[in-house]
Write a structure and sequence with these properties.
Blueprint (H helix, E strand, L loop, with lengths): L4 H7 L15 H4 L15 H15 L3 H14 L4 H14 L5 H4 L5 H10 L6 E5 L5 H9 L4 E6 L5 H4 L6 H15 L5 E5 L5 H4 L6 E4 L10
Parallel strand pairs: 1-2, 1-4, 2-3
Length: about 220
């Protein structure tokens, strides 16, 4: 029998929310009617604990040193100067007020380093990004390829998928997200298209030299 107490305790609000029969916080409890409430139902599902056990199993079995060696070998096979690109990427991040690549975490995935490598080999005229999110990658592409035209596509704020995922629930969550997105896509060579990517052929015209697909994480099938 697996105890649910620690997980339930972690999920409980710390600020004295009053919970009604619909499992929603009452406005009079803390004055924040739009603050998202984390449902407790998932903690009663065995599948939740199985997924968490698998996740921690993968983490414990992950050999970072081996993964780094494989990554370096792949860059070398493609003829990329990984170390040179890393130095240049760190310089661009520093100029943008960001931490170095290895310290950034979060959105700073290996594809940032790949873009920096491409910068030394090629100058794409037009770049298409599908999945803007908060615009961090679009902003980086803008700095890596200042002469390129960048079109980035994300869901409009009216889309329920956007409003129900990635901590964007409620007016406060969506406002914070949109503020970051507007700030990061404000460069002159970036155009933000707020439309479901299914409609990209009808809304974003022309050919692109580089396409980066980083959207649709909620489904198993990508078109």
């Amino acid at each position: 029998m697996i105890s649910c107490f620690p997980a339930v305790w972690w999920a409980l609000p710390r600020d004295g929310w009053a919970i009604d029969s619909t499992m929603q916080p009452k406005p009079e409890a803390n004055g924040q009617a739009d603050r998202p409430w984390r449902p407790l139902g998932r903690f009663g599902s065995p599948g939740y604990y199985w997924r968490k056990a698998r996740e921690w199993g993968f983490r414990l079995g992950y050999d970072r040193a081996r993964a780094a060696r494989i990554e370096a070998e792949k860059f070398a096979e493609l003829g990329f100067d990984r170390e040179r690109a890393l130095v240049e990427l760190d310089g661009i991040l520093r100029d943008a007020g960001k931490p170095p690549f290895r310290d950034a975490g979060g959105m700073a995935s290996v594809h940032w380093l790949l873009f920096a490598c491409l910068r030394n080999e090629w100058a794409p005229r037009r770049i298409l990004e599908i999945g803007t999110y908060d615009g961090e990658t679009a902003a980086l592409l803008s700095r890596l390829f200042p002469a390129s035209e960048i079109a980035t596509v994300d869901l409009p704020e009216s889309d329920p998928i956007l409003r129900q995922t990635y901590n964007r629930e409620g007016e406060a969550g969506i406002a914070k997200f949109l503020e970051a997105q507007v700030r990061n896509t404000s460069a002159a060579n970036i155009t933000l298209h707020k439309v479901n990517s299914f409609f990209v052929p009808m809304t974003v015209r022309g050919l692109f030299d580089l396409t980066w697909v980083d959207g649709g994480h909620l489904t198993a099938v990508q078109l």
